[in-house]
Structures are given as structure tokens and as C-alpha cells.
Amino acid sequence: MPKQRITKEMVVDAAFEIARKDGIEKATVKTIAEKLGCSVQPIYSYCKNMDGLKNDVAEKARTFILAEVGKTVDRNDLFRSTGHAYIQIAKNEPHIFRMYLFQERKNVSSLDDIYCSETNPNVSKIIAENLNISISAAKRLHLNMLIYTIGTGTIYSVTSSSISEAEIFNQQELAYEAFLKQALEDNRNE
């Protein structure tokens, strides 16, 4: 029987599956090799260091999260459902959510940079149209909810699952109402 050729994609996929189940710290060269049924040599040939592999796995986590959000978002309630989708991922895939959160963001030196790298620019336009506010007020509202959702998602992903989604969604709604009030006031003052 010919030997199976191990590819970099196979290494990243195996590391991702281990990290998804047990956390990124469990994705070691040894556990990846065991999952692939090979020696550690092919793993070392693709991984000059574990940081590079962890970055590849974190990027795969990012792609996974964006795909999951895309599948579950309600196009008729884009803003709320996106926030809810992130919270559901934090609950159902806590290791992936944490990998996504703690992925290094290079060239980010402001909240505006975070906003540009983490959101779809069309969302602020949709929010502005739906709420009849300026794009700048919509962008501030969206950024505030992004920060709030990341915070609640982080809490959700590192605590026991005894916090109900309803409680988290209710808290998101309260934050949204407060941020919306501020956005409407900002819009009047522009």
C-alpha cells in the first residue's frame, strides 16, 4: 500500500479539528500526527514553528465563523441576527470563538481599524437606511454593538453554559437600545 502524502492543508485541518474540540493548546505536533496517523516529520516539514500553524488555524476559525454567521443571519433583521449569530457561535463553538478573538490583528492601531477589518462596510449603509440616520452615526452604532457583542461573546465562551441565550440576547437588546438612543442623538447633532 502506498504511503499517504500529508499536505499542509491536512495538517491545518487536523489542528483545527483538535483545537475545535479541545482548544488550540491541545493542537501539538504529536496530537496532529496521531490524528493524521503519521509520524511527526510531515508536521515539522510544514510547521517551521507552532506560531505559524496557530495563525493558519486561527484564520481557518475566522473563515468558519464568517461562514456560520452567513448561514444563520436573517436578511430581514441583519443587525440583530448578526449579533445573535456571534453569541450562538460563542456558546456552541467556544474554542473556535476564542481562536477567532485572540487571533493577532496586524496593522490595527485604532477602533476604526478594528471596525474596517471586522465588519462588512455595507452593514453601516443598511443600518443608516433602516434607521434613517447618517452613515457615520450608523457606523458608531455598529462599532458599539460590535464591541459589546465581542465582550458578551467572550464572557459566554469562557463560562459554563448555564447562562441562557435569552439572558444574553436580552442584554444585547438593552445595549442596542442605549446605543441607538445615542446614535439618534448624535445624528441630530451632526
Describe the protein.
There is one protein chain. The protein has 190 residues and is an all-alpha fold. The protein folds into two domains: 48 residues, Homeodomain-like (Arc Repressor Mutant, subunit A); 129 residues, Tetracycline Repressor, domain 2, CATH 1.10.357. Helices cover 75% and strands 0% of the residues. Helix 4 crosses helix 5, helix 4 packs across helix 6 and helix 5 packs antiparallel against helix 10. The relative contact order is 0.10. The model has no long low-confidence stretch (mean pLDDT 86).
Q: What proportion of the residues form beta strands (DSSP E)?
A: under 5%
Q: Could you report the average pLDDT, rounded to the nearest whole number? A: 86
The N- and C-terminal alpha carbons lie at a distance of 72 Å
* SS element count, helices: 10
Provide the CATH topology of the largest domain: Tetracycline Repressor, domain 2
- Please give the number of β-strands: 0
**Which spans have pLDDT < 50 for at least 5 consecutive residues?**
none
Main β-sheet, in a few words? none
CATH architecture assignment of the largest domain:
Orthogonal Bundle
Topology:
Blueprint: H1 8-22, H2 29-36, H3 41-46, H4 50-72, H5 78-92, H6 94-101, H7 111-118, H8 121-131, H9 135-158, H10 165-189
Helix pairs in contact: 1-2, 1-4, 4-5, 4-6, 5-6, 5-9, 5-10, 6-9, 8-9, 9-10
